[in-house]
Amino acid sequence: MKRSLAFGVAIVGGAIGVVALAWLGFAWYESRLPETYSVMDYAIPDVGGAPAGADHMHGETSVVALHGPTGTPRRRFVLIAREGSVRLASGRSVDALSFNGSVPGPELRVREGELVEVTLRNQNIEQGVTVHWHGVDLPNAEDGVAGVTQNAVLPGESHVYRFRAGQVGTFWYHAHQASAGEVRRGLYGPLVIEPPRAPQSGARDIVVAVHTLDGTPLVNDTDGVERHVVAPGAAVRLRVINTDNAPIRFGIGGTPFRVVAIDGTDLVGPTLLREKTMVLAAGGRYDVSFTMPRTPVKLAVAGTLVGLALSTDGKADPPPPVPGPEFDPVVYGRPSPTPVDVSSHFDRVFTLDVGRKPGFLDGQPGKQWTLNGGIYPRVPMFMVAKGDRVRISIHNRTGAVHPMHLHGHHMLVLSRNGIAVSGGPWWSDTLNVEPGETYDVAFRANNPGIWMAHCHNLAHAAAGLTMHVAYTGVTTPFQTGGAAHNHPE
Ligand SMILES: [Cu+2]
Q: Looking at 314-379, which runs of residues are DSSP E strands?
């Protein structure tokens, strides 16, 4: 009797085992990506509650047709991508990937309204290169995403980007081919779009690009403190750019200051701050300004020895700023009208749940990132039509920070954890979403194309935290995957 029961249990157990194995095998088999595929192939279209028929396509537009303006460019730049050693300000040489032989790449400064032409040449980077203009809402074909808006530029090849500098602010450019490795290794640089009028005389405008190159923290090309001579009374604007994968914390000591812009958009009514700790998203930008006092000013990046020292003789080494409470954009600045707000009618309403679960990513077992429950490439594709008002609720249900970056658009932050933004309008292109947080954001669908929406911790993006916002009727002829040499993340 006992023996037959044990036999029965063994049979049932064995059957369950076989079924579980078969399921595992199927999940593994299903997860494998083909050599090449289109980002349109696997994604699960989500129309955001739009009525049936709203996505009726009036012909098809290739992303290739959505290019920048023709005509004679006002500004021309050449970026030569190469692998080789670069020299840091300290004199130390580091093996890196670089634009024009320096890390960061050259600071590109243009004026609002100028037609900009940038020629990218790949000298010797085997896996190919592209340039993405982070935060610049330019035409889709100029967006620089390998496998979506262009093919990766292979050694010996070149590619021309053209766009009109339509937004005043602080931006940056970086590779969007194998970007998790290429950006970390040095393929990035600052891009500043200045107002058409010249700045007031004596004003100082300084880019502070913060990066970790090969384990070495940098501000610009300095693996230490970058010193500047600044006259008392000068209007100073520091453009802090976080080009790393994790948020940075920085403080400013020696003067009160204002945060005057976030992610390339000026704030309304920024008030004076003292001893605040600034938490800047990976990929995000904060512009801070102050009037130079007679005494030195220090910007320090927490957890590192790098920073900026401003003084009248350029020699001072001021003490680090006092750590204070965190700066919060939700309550900063003066409320003013926005094109949409929490009470607006939205044509499309989406939810984006960032999660994690065991499964297979391209045949590899592990605890995988998920978007609305799906493991890449079975992630949602948010479908919009030109003119739509779009709202997205972003939920971070993981234990990690995710700086969510939307290409081609700026998101108006409506609320965080259900609490409406009560300060000035806060437009973001790279939003730091901490574990457990929820953000409601909105944008106007006014820039047709297929736009990446991804985590700007580029290691997370490469591990599947990548999806797209696609306009109905737009298609891409480009393919992602091995034989196509296109690996946007
Ligand atoms: Cu992430």
A: 348-361, 364-371
**Nearby residues of 415 by Cβ (< 8 Å), 6 or more positions away:** 342, 421, 439, 440
Q: Alpha-carbon distance 230 to 203, whole Å?
A: 9
Q: Which tens digits make up the pLDDT trace of 249-262? A: 999 999 999 999 99
Q: Give dist(CA 131, CA 10) in Å, integer.
A: 59
Contact between residue 259 and residue 286 where contact means Cβ atoms under 8 Å apart: yes
Query: Ligand 1: distance of its center to the CA of 435 in Å?
Result: 10
**Is residue 459 within 8 Å of residue 367, measured between CB atoms?**
no
CA of 91 relative to ligand 1 center, distance in Å: 34
Domains in the chain: ranges and CATH: 337-481 (2.60.40.420)
Q: What is the pLDDT of residue 5?
A: 66
Expressed in angstroms and rounded, the spacing between residue 463 Cα and the centre of ligand 1 is 9
Structure tokens at 360: 């297979």
400 alpha carbon – ligand 1 mean position (Å): 7
What is the tens place of the pLDDT at every residue in 43-99?
999 999 988 665 555 568 999 999 999 999 999 999 999 999 999 999 999 999 999
How many A from CA of 354 to the centre of ligand 1? 9
If phi over 0 gives left and psi between -120 and 50 gives alpha, with beta otherwise, what is residue 363? left
CA distances for 329 relative to 158, 174, 279, angstroms: 40, 26, 10
- Distant-in-sequence, close-in-space partners of 7: CB < 8 Å, separation ≥ 6: none
User: What spacing in Å lies between the alpha carbon of 285 and ligand 1's midpoint?
Assistant: 17
